[in-house]
Design the sequence.
């Protein structure tokens, strides 16, 4: 009789241990699923942050021209004419119909810099022009040169120490356009270069 009781007790213990192990496995699976859910949420938040960083950009401008900037004498796209933008500096820009507000001959630069407001480093920002660099002389800068930015296209840009990534002598345009994604019309946007525009 005692052998039967001992066997029954042993089986009960084994069953209890087995059930406890299964229960822990379920909890681990639930925890893993919760972590996956959190990762998905984190990815969504990262995507939102990317869009948030775009909000720091001043899509519309005042139309004020930097001192010393010269109007283009014979631009491909005349002031008042229409063109299609073939650039995606911002969401809703690529493919938008633009009205040319101003055309100027200068040197344009892509730059990389750390924002003065402590934000994430910006790399290959398009575009700033020669006249938007502090104490710029007549001579254009070269890739690798270090400059102080006077433009305020984005939060934390003005006063930032930047490195020139590329330089190109061309005609730059200030444009008005309605984003292809909808929303308010963008006015006096600086800058779009000639190779980023095409005729209608």
Sequence:
């Amino acid at each position: 009789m005692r052998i039967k009781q001992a066997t029954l007790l042993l089986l009960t213990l084994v069953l209890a241990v087995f059930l406890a192990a299964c229960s822990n496995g379920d909890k681990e699976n639930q925890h893993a699923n919760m972590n996956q859910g959190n990762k998905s949420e984190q990815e969504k938040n990262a995507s939102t942050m990317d869009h948030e960083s775009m909000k720091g950009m001043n899509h519309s401008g005042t139309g004020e021209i930097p001192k010393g900037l010269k109007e283009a004498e014979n631009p491909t796209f005349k002031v008042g004419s229409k063109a299609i933008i073939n650039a995606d500096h911002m969401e809703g820009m690529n493919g938008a119909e633009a009205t040319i507000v101003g055309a100027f001959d200068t040197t344009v630069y892509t730059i990389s810099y750390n924002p003065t407001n402590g934000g994430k480093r910006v790399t290959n920002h398009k575009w700033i022009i020669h006249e938007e660099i502090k104490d710029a002389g007549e001579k254009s800068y070269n890739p690798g040169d270090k400059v102080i930015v006077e433009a305020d296209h984005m939060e934390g840009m003005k006063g930032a120490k930047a490195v020139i990534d590329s330089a190109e002598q061309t005609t730059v345009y200030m444009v008005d356009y309605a984003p292809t994604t909808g929303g308010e019309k963008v006015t006096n946007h600086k800058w779009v270069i000639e190779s980023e525009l095409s005729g209608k």
